[in-house]
Specification:
Layout lengths: L3 E12 L4 E13 L4 E5 L6 H9 L6 E6 L2 E2 L3 H5 L1 E4 L11 H11 L7 H11 L15 H13 L5 E5 L7 H16 L3 E5 L3 H7 L2 E6 L2 E7 H5 L3 E6 L9 E3 L2 E6 L2 H13 L4 E7 L3 H8 L8
Parallel strand pairs: 3-8, 3-9, 6-7, 7-8
Antiparallel strand pairs: 1-2, 1-4, 4-5, 9-10, 11-13, 11-14, 12-13
Amino acid sequence: MSLIEIKGLKKVYRSPFLRREVVGLEHLDLSVERNEIFGFLGPNGAGKSTTLKILTGIIRASAGSATIDGLAVGSPKARRMLGFMPEFPTFHDFLRADEFLTFYGDLSGMARQELPQRIDQVLEMVGLPGVQDRPLRSFSKGMLQRIGLAQAVLHDPDLVILDEPMSGLDPVGRRDVRQLMTGLKAAGKTVLFSSHVLNDVEEIADRVTVVREGRNVLSGSIDELLGGERFELVVRQRPSAGEWRQVGEDFMMICDDEEAAQRQLAELVQAGISVLRCQRERRSLEQLFFEDFRPSGDAS
């Protein structure tokens, strides 16, 4: 059984003042396996944050079902299994870092005597060593993002749910968060995260789902979705056969696999055409997202 199972999930927001309904999710199906890093993608308003908030029990679904390890989301047992960081974490800024984490440790049912050592560990883990005595009001945006990550993993949950964990972080911070997530997986944890930073998703996610307008439009492993490696051939003289397109003064063909590239190279050699370049390439997740799954008319 998958760790997370979502079937036919629907969320409708009702506005009595405006006398209308807004559909946040429409029959969403999703499954997340144990001990994997799962990327949750989609444009703004696609339903990513709504889904994550339903999984954490912050809001309730209008229809459908969602379970964590077979437990109904929002139940005490399901909540104890997970750690969560929202997209825009806000904290009482008068608290010191250790006071803040102690508060969350108490909420998670951790023993007081184990908290000081665990707080030191998680602050080191998220790249904030030695800030225990600093008030949160002195933290930069990136530091607040890191302290949010620290509270999400403080009680050593089996499932960590992160809504846009790279937001506000510089390249070093993004690298640190990627390492944190891969470290959680190595420790046997499951990570579900949403992100707009597609390169980061491609680098660390085992599988991804793309949602649009509250529906799942694409799911699979990174290799399945990107189609594995392709080969780019570039020549100066246009061959008489084949799908070649002009790029500046040269002509280029994309072969879907190594066997096709080898056949094409043999034909070029036989025709006496010199090959300027033959290199491996793989379609990026960003190309997939914008070329195939960008909503029509979206200019953003």
